[in-house]
Amino acid sequence: MLNLPSTNDPLRRRFAACLLGGAIGDALGFPIEFLSTDQILERHGSDGLREFIPEGGLARVSDDTQMTYLTLLSLVRHGHDQDPLTFQKELFDIYREWGRIQRRSIPAPPDYPVFLTKLRSPGFTCMKNLTYYALPSSLERPRNDSKGCGGIMRVAPIGFLDIGPEKVALLAILASSCTHGHPLGYLPSAVQACAVQRLVFHPETSVRDAVGDAVETVGRLLRSGGHPELSRDRVLEEWGLLVALLEKAVCLAENPSDVRTDIEKLGQGWVAEETLAIAVYCSIRFENDFRSAICSSANFSGDSDSCAAVTGNLLGAKTDPDVMARAFDVDILESADELVSLVKML
Fold this sequence. Notes:
Blueprint: H1 10-29, H2 37-44, H3 63-78, H4 84-102, H5 114-117, H6 124-132, H7 165-177, H8 183-201, H9 207-224, H10 233-254, H11 259-266, H12 272-285, H13 290-298, H14 304-316, H15 321-327, H16 336-343
């Protein structure tokens, strides 16, 4: 049984819930990530996959949860009070160590969590950046134009920082842009991290309002001119596209029809803006039904594990872990003990 933070420590309990929610979504979606909707329904029935598929007694997580753990690890080790670019470099170094362990270029340290050493289909963009380069990619000179969801699926812990939301947005951008160079590879991360921050520190906030506040925060950051690369015309144009897609997700959630039809209107989740839009849709539509939110975000033709992981982080930030435990067997969830233990060190 998980040793969760007690109800007398409600903030850390919400941190743990956010991470467990992401790991639950990741573990549910991982086995069906590359299946079409028809294949999922054929194998798992008309409701799709609604329970973990354990292997060796564990519900296995993917690189999404591995990298989320690493983001939290960086915050525990280094905090956030340093210069933002120093924060990015320290985080990149932790990612890079993991990437080299994944490639078997270096051995894992003796105290390295075992689940981090498992090969779980890490994304090409992440692995290329983490194994070929010693320094993070920069906003000024991005080394690729990727907007894959490998940037957004790892940033939720940045929302645990008790700092101004615009700094949270900037740190999330830097956390993603160190590997993903397209504006839509890092702007969705800023929205995700700010929404998580709003929900963990103000749990009475609705998901819709948290996302709305996050969009306003990121918009202010981009317009402030504080970071010249974030005020370029291309960044602002891509930001406008992201905002329009999120507005569409909210509209669909508040005027729902068939879930899978709605999700198809938002994309397949392979790129970060679609991942976020699908997570926002499922979290708003099923705000009081964690199980349905996770299952809906996983059971479709797309990036099942990343969409469900980001949904789990977002909705998990305001869902009590006991609710999650009634919906899914968290006692067999790989990484759960490690995530909770690390939260207690933050």
